[in-house]
Amino acid sequence: MRKVIVSIATVIGLVLSSNVAFADSAKPGQSMTHMKTAAGVASTLEAAGVILYVQGGATSAVIGDNLSAATSQVVFHIPVTANKAGVQHVGSNIIFFNTANNQYLTLKNPVIDLAKGVVSATVPQAGDAKVDILTITNASTAKPKITNDKKAKQRTTAYAGTTLVLAPGVAATIASVLGLPAGSLPDGLAFGTADVTLYSKLK
C-alpha cells in the first residue's frame, strides 16, 4: 500500500515531508483558496485505501510524516478564477482515488458560496450534476478582512478559518462510487477548513 501511495503521489506532484507542506507559490495578485483537511481525515481515507489529491491548476501537499499518520493533513492551493456567482475555481479538480480498485470520484470546478453556506462541484460520475459537497458551518459569521494598498492600487479581501464538513449524504455517495463498504466514511465528517484570499483593483 505504501509503495502505491508514494508512486501515485510522485506522479501528481504530492510532496511528502516531515511537518512541512511545500507547494508552488501563488503569482503576485493571484486570488487563491487554501484548503486544509482536518487532522485524521487523510489517515481515515488511507486506511480504506483512498488517497486525496488535486488536478489542474491546483497543487497539494501533506503536513505530517505520511498519509497514514493520525495527525496528517492534506493542504490544497486552488487558484480562484472568478468571484461573481460564488468563489469559482475553474480548471481545478479534487479527486478521491481508491488504490484497491482504481475507482475514483472527481469534484470538478469547486465553487464556494458563502451566501448559501456550501461548497459545490460538478461530479462527472453523477452525470455532470452540480452537487453540494461540503457544508460551511460558520458561513453566517464569516467576515472578510479587507486591506487596501493604495500604492499598489490593490484591494485584498481575506476570509480565514471557514469550517467544512461533508454535506448530508455525501459520505455514502463517496463510499458507493469508490466501491467501499457501507459506513466506511461517517456522515457529516469534519473535513477541514478553507481560507480564501481575493485580490481586486483599487479604484
Separation of termini?
A: 54 Å
Tell me the number of helical segments per DSSP (H or I, 4 or more residues long): 3
Largest sheet: 14 strands, mixed
Average of per-residue pLDDT values:
85
Task: Report the helical percentage.
Answer: 10-25%
Question: Based on helices, strands and strand pairing, what is the structural class?
Answer: mainly beta
Describe the 3D structure.
The chain starts with a helix and ends with a strand. Strands 1, 2, 3, 4, 5, 6, 7, 8, 9, 10, 11, 12, 13 and 14 form a 14-stranded mixed β-sheet that branches. It has helices at residues 2-12, 41-47, 170-178, and strands spanning 15-17, 32-37, 50-56, 59-63, 73-79, 82-84, 86-88, 92-98, 104-113, 118-123, 129-136, 145-149, 154-166, 190-201. The protein has a domain at 2-19 and 31-133 and 168-184. With 203 residues, it is mainly beta. It contains three helices and 14 strands. This is Fasciclin domain-containing protein. Keywords: Signal. Residues 1-23 form the signal peptide.
Topology of helices and strands:
Elements: H1 2-12, E1 15-17, E2 32-37, H2 41-47, E3 50-56, E4 59-63, E5 73-79, E6 82-84, E7 86-88, E8 92-98, E9 104-113, E10 118-123, E11 129-136, E12 145-149, E13 154-166, H3 170-178, E14 190-201
Parallel strand pairs: 1-4
Antiparallel strand pairs: 2-5, 2-14, 3-8, 4-5, 6-7, 7-9, 8-9, 9-10, 10-11, 11-13, 12-13, 13-14
Short structural description:
It comes from Candidatus Nanopelagicus limnae. By secondary structure, the protein is mostly beta strands.
Keywords:
signal, 14 strands, 14-stranded mixed beta sheet, globular, 3 helices, mainly beta, 203 residues
